[in-house]
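Support request, please re-run this one:
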Amino acid sequence: MVSLRKRHVDRIEASPHQDAAPVSVPPTDAAKLPDPVEPKPIEQPETESPADLAGKNRLRDELRKMENAEALGRQAQQPPQVPPPQEPQAPTVEEIIAGCELPDLAKNWLRQNPEFILDPAKNERLRKMHNVAEYQSGSEYTEPYFQRLEGSARSQTRNPQQWPRASTSSTST
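Re-run finished. Output below.
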């Protein structure tokens, strides 16, 4: 076989660039590659199932309810800050008379005789004397009625030592 190399070598003309390097040298000032980065694991997004979310929400709601119940329980245990109750004051004679549904003539008589309002025993006697005076005078809260009431009141308030006594002297004949 015939060698082609030998045959064509004679035909190649000598070129002026033959002595130069066939490829240019890469520049040394070119951009450098960045430093290698350590790979981090990819974070998976937190995905919770709807059942897990519903369970957490229910737990939060129950916790809030319990906290509210505890707060209400503490408030119920602490009595409200109320000043101590004052003893009710007895109404005055004038307040009692003003509250009665009596005619003015009866109210005036009570103002002149307040002991029949203030003393429970005398008040009970006045109730009984009222019936007697009404029967004897024929009507109630009239002038004759109050005259009878005055007479009964005087005889009731008289001291028993002042009552007239029957004489017990023995007569000899």
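The CA atoms of residues 57 and 116 lie 74 Å apart. The longest helix spans residues 50-77.
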